UniProtKB/TrEMBL annotation:
Originating organism: Sapayoa aenigma (broad-billed sapayoa)
Bias kind Acidic residues: ranges: 528-538
Keyword Nucleus: yes
Family, similarity comment: Belongs to the WD repeat NOL10/ENP2 family.
Protein name stated in the entry: Nucleolar protein 10
CC terms in the record's Gene Ontology section: 90S preribosome; small-subunit processome
InterPro entries, A to Z: Beta-prop_NOL10_N, NOL10/Enp2, NOL10_2nd, NUC153, WD40/YVTN_repeat-like_dom_sf, WD40_repeat_dom_sf, WD40_rpt
């Protein structure tokens, strides 16, 4: 169960948490509940309170026993029995439901308005009758005295279907091109409809004549609202005999008294989204209005926000359970949300255990897991002398730092800085003294931190005040007086480092500009040291000198940039020389490598070649071996591939083969020399 609080109003989300799939067995569900803490702590108020994909509308029967919801996909209606805390039945429909109405006290009589201009009637056993209206419908209302259904939609006519006679009656002809919503007053049965032109037409069902017209589009535009187009009416709801709330497509809610054409109050959601639903809460005089993003509860007399809720998924409909603090929503998600707000009222009688549960939670608030841990960065660990704990079980790595036990942190801090409490006490005393001094009449003193920045802001503020006086404009607030930037001039950690590389590159003329401010700072410090009561302005220069200085600044901008870059290059050169000296001082030690058994060392190049070859894919290695001649790939008659490998020979085999080759070569030479001698001898004999 998730608990949130806004304006000190606690909201309990009863549908938060993970849901278990339906196909899991009971044994696996019990095993998951034992392992997972979130599943064990979740509250499933109504079993399977969800739709397959999206839920569009949700309503409660008048007896409070049944909750009915429609959704997709496939289009269906589900009825949940609150006494059994489970689903009673489910019925699939031919087309998606635009809206529906429960005519009886229970689920025995239901009317569905569907997308394809169909009106479908269901009884207790199921589908009863189906008819069609001439135009596409968007909303309908039931008139109890005459048993008439009033349908509004993409037409200027309002269609009437009498359920007692079972036939259509003469329709009401309106001035609107299209109508979006309608409602009937529960006291005097006045029929009201909201049009696409941003107007509300009120009709008397007894005489079938229009008795009133309200231009809500014009009334919704106020000085603070920004509207791109003409707002149309997207929601309509009566409250008692005299009040009516109207929601527009641009996100405004207007509360009317039927005796006046001007709204009592206009409430803007500030999201620019159409209002989907309006409900009234009579115990606290609240109006609950919802668009697709947020549900707002506000006082209908003053318009002050009571509380608000922003679900994770888009909202389609909101239903307030009668005489209780329970709220249900239909969302753009399978799960339908259930919220319990104890301030609005007690829990319904079928889930009265919620009151005891919420009271126990308020009496024993649970501390969060992070209350027992302290987040520290690597720099904090070095300051505390705990950098050696990195990698141990005492530190849990998270984002750019670590979580450590708060007790260990306090002990280490006391040992690293035993006088921390005394320093903290002195700092608090100093702050108290400064607060008391602030009440006295003081001189304009510069802060201790970022004095040059404060002086710059004061100068700019003085120039802006002169400009605003000439133009007669309002003075803008000063950064020095703004509480959001107070720490910037109090905490030394926010001191601007003017010697850093980034600052010097971004501010090339800072040296010349800072000289003027440093002179003023020296003069102000001397005045403060002397204890003068009135702050004197430092003697300024002549206008000619100031103009010459400004012109020099403009001319010397390029020179200053070059100068800063030259200084940065010199600093980098010095750093490189220092690094080179450090590298020369460090002694290089020889590294020894061990050779595996059965291998002979040839050179480092062979090992590098082996590593490169091993990184290649099998295809690349096969291609390389095929080029070298150690592999032969050929096609067989069957259609497959045949690969023939030549194994690499060892060093001994190579030496032996080389010796044999030399021996064969020597024998060949000997044979040739012997044959040559024989041929010479034969020639000599012939000559003799």
């Amino acid at each position: 169960m998730q608990v949130s609080s806004l304006n000190e109003v606690k909201i309990y989300s009863l549908s938060a948490g993970r849901s278990l799939p339906e196909w899991l067995s009971d044994r696996k569900k019990r095993a998951l509940q034992k392992k997972d803490v979130d599943i064990r702590r979740r509250i499933e108020l109504i079993q399977d309170f969800e739709m397959p994909t999206v839920s569009t509308k949700i309503k409660v029967s008048r007896d409070g026993q049944y909750i009915m919801a429609v959704g997709t996909y496939k289009p269906r209606v589900r009825c949940f029995d609150t006494y059994q805390l489970s689903q009673k039945f489910e019925r699939c429909l031919d087309s998606e439901v635009v809206t529906f109405e429960i005519l009886s006290d229970d689920y025995s009589k239901i009317v569905f308005l569907q997308c394809g201009r169909f009106v479908e009637f269901h009884s207790q056993h199921g589908h009863y009758y189906r008819t069609r209206i001439p135009k596409f419908g968007r909303d309908f209302s039931y008139h109890y005295p005459s048993c008439d259904l009033y349908f509004v939609g993409a037409s200027s006519e309002v269609y009437r279907l009498n359920l007692e006679q079972g036939r259509f009656l003469n329709s009401l002809q309106t001035d609107a091109s299209e109508s979006n919503v309608c409602d009937i007053n529960p006291v005097h049965f006045l029929f009201a409809m909201g049009t696409a032109e941003g107007k509300v037409e009120c009709w008397d069902p007894r005489t079938r004549n229009r008795v009133g017209l309200l231009d809500c589009a014009l009334s919704s535009v106020t000085a603070d609202t920004e509207i791109d187009g003409l707002p149309s009416i997207s929601a309509l709801k009566f409250d008692g005999a005299l009040h009516m709330a109207v929601g527009t497509s641009t996100g405004q809610v207007l509360l009317y008294d039927l005796r006046s054409s001007n709204p009592l109050i206009v409430k803007d959601h500030h999201y620019g989204l159409p209002i989907k639903s309006i409900q009234f809460q009579h115990q606290l005089d609240l109006i609950i209005s919802a668009d697709s993003r947020i549900i707002k509860m506000w006082n209908k007399d003053t318009g002050k926000i009571f509380t608000s809720m922003e679900p994770e998924h888009g909202i389609n409909d909101v239903c307030l359970y009668p005489n209780s603090g329970m709220l249900m929503t239909a969302n753009e998600a399978p799960k339908m949300n259930i919220y319990y707000i104890p301030v609005l009222g007690p829990a319904p009688k079928w889930c009265s255990f919620l009151d005891n549960l919420t009271e126990e939670l308020e009496e024993n608030p649970e501390s969060t897991v992070y209350d027992d841990y302290k987040f520290v960065t690597r720099k904090d660990l070095e300051n505390l002398g705990l950098a050696h704990l990195i990698g141990s079980s005492l530190l849990r790595a998270y984002m750019h730092g670590f979580f450590m036990d708060i007790r260990l942190y306090h002990k280490a801090k006391m040992m690293a800085n035993p006088f921390a409490y005394e320093e903290y006490r002195r700092e608090k005393i100093r702050q108290k003294i400064e607060e008391t001094r602030a009440q006295r009449v003081q001189l304009k003193k510069l802060p201790k931190v970022n004095k040059e920045l404060a002086l710059k802001l004061l100068e700019e503020e003085g120039e802006e005040q002169q400009i605003t006086r000439k133009r007669k404009q309002k003075n803008l607030p000063s950064l020095l007086k703004d509480d959001r930037f107070k720490v910037m001039f109090e905490n030394p950690d926010f001191q601007v480092d003017e010697q850093s590389e980034e600052f010097r590159l971004l501010n090339p003329l800072v040296s010349k500009i800072s000289e003027k401010r440093k002179r003023k700072l020296k003069i102000l410090e001397e005045l403060e040291a002397q204890g003068q009561e009135e702050e004197e302005e430092p003697e300024g220069k002549a206008s000619d000198a100031e103009s010459s200085e400004s012109s020099d600044d403009e001319k010397g901008w390029v020179e200053e940039v070059r100068k800063q870059r030259k200084l940065l290059r010199q600093e980098e050169k010095l750093k490189r020389q220092e690094r080179f000296k450090e590298d020369q001082q460090t002694l290089l030690k020889p590294q020894f490598f061990e050779i595996k058994e059965g291998e002979e060392f040839r050179s480092f190049k062979d090992s590098a070649k082996k590593q490169k070859l091993m990184k290649k894919t099998l295809e690349d290695r096969l291609k390389l071996e095929e080029k070298l001649g150690t592999l032969n790939v050929s096609d067989t008659t069957v259609g497959s591939k045949q690969a023939t490998f030549k194994l690499k020979k060892s060093e001994q085999q190579r030496k032996q083969q080389e010796a044999e080759r030399q021996h064969r070569q020597e024998r060949k030479t000997l044979r040739r020399s012997a044959s040559h001698l024989k041929s010479k001898r034969g020639r000599g004999r012939l000559f003799h």
